[in-house]
Specification:
The protein contains seven helices and six strands; from the N terminus they run H-E-E-E-E-H-H-E-E-H-H-H-H. The two termini are about 15 Å apart. The strands form three sheets. A two-stranded antiparallel sheet has the order 1-4. Strands 2-3 form a two-stranded antiparallel sheet. It has a two-stranded antiparallel ribbon with strand order 5-6. Helix 3 packs antiparallel against helix 4 (about 105-115). The protein has a single domain, classed as Transferase(Phosphotransferase), domain 1 (Orthogonal Bundle), CATH 1.10.510. It has helices at about 1-10, 60-65, 70-85, 105-115, 130-135, 145-150, 185-190; strands at about 10-15, 20-25, 30, 40, 90-95, 95-100. It is globular. The protein is an alpha+beta fold.
Length: about 200
C-alpha cells in the first residue's frame, strides 16, 4: 500500500484509501482501485478543501472542512493498518486521543500513532520526503522496497486462480496461509485453534 501511495506522489493523492479499494492481483501484489476522488497536480505545499473520501477513513482536517494536503492519505493508511492489525477501526476520542490495544508491538504502535497524528504537519509522511518517511519507519525494517517495487519479493499470500465455470458463475476458493508462514506464540495460537484462517 505504501509503495502504491508513493506511485501517486509527488503531485497527486487518493483521498479514498480504504480496504475496499485495495485489491490483490493474481501474483499477490496489492493494487489500488477507484481513483474517482483522487486529486492531481497538488505538490508538497499544495492544498485543497473539498469534502471527499469515506467517512471512517477521512483525516480530521477533511472532516473539519479545513484546507488539507496529501498527508490525508497517510491518515487513511494509519486507519487501514490499524484495522488490519486489530480487526476493527480505531477509537479516536477527542479527550483521550487514540485508544491502542496492549497486544500491539511497540513499532506498530509508533507507526500507527505517527500516521494518525491529528496535526497534519506532524503526521508521518507529511514532510517533503513524503512516502520515504513512511517507508523508512522501523515497522517496515524487513521490507526490501526496491525488490517490492520490482515485484521480485515473494508475497505472503497468492490467491488461487478463479475460473469461470461452465454456467458462467465464478467459484471463489479461499486458501489459508501455509502453516510455516504463521509465527505466533503457542498460547495465542491455541486461542485460534478452530479457526480456518488467521491474518497476521
Amino acid at each position: 500500500m505504501t509503495t502504491r501511495a508513493r506511485e501517486l506522489q509527488p503531485c497527486a493523492f487518493k483521498r479514498d484509501l480504504k480496504p475496499e479499494n485495495l485489491l490483490l492481483d493474481s501474483s499477490g501484489y496489492v493494487k489500488l482501485a477507484d481513483f474517482g476522488l483522487s486529486k492531481d497536480g497538488i505538490g508538497y505545499e499544495g492544498r485543497t478543501s473539498s469534502l471527499k473520501g469515506s467517512f471512517g477513513y477521512m483525516a480530521p482536517e477533511v472532516l473539519a472542512r479545513e484546507p488539507y494536503s496529501r498527508s490525508v492519505d497517510w491518515w487513511s493508511l494509519g486507519i487501514v493498518i490499524y484495522e488490519m492489525l486489530v480487526g476493527e477501526k480505531p477509537m479516536l476520542r477527542p479527550s483521550t486521543g487514540l485508544v491502542i490495544p496492549t497486544f500491539l508491538a511497540g513499532d506498530a504502535v509508533n507507526l500507527i500513532s505517527g500516521l494518525l497524528q491529528r496535526d497534519p504537519l506532524k503526521r508521518l509522511g507529511s514532510s517533503e520526503e513524503d512516502a520515504c518517511d513512511v517507508m523508512h519507519h522501523y515497522f517496515f525494517r524487513s521490507i526490501d522496497w526496491m525488490a517490492l517495487l520490482e515485484r521480485r519479493m515473494q508475497p505472503p499470500f497468492i490467491p488461487e486462480d478463479v475460473r469461470l465455470s461452465e454456467d458462467g458463475d465464478q467459484h471463489l476458493v479461499l486458501t489459508p496461509p501455509s502453516e510455516g508462514s504463521l509465527s505466533m506464540e503457542k498460547e495465542i495460537a491455541e486461542a485460534f485453534r478452530d479457526f480456518d484462517y488467521t491474518a497476521m
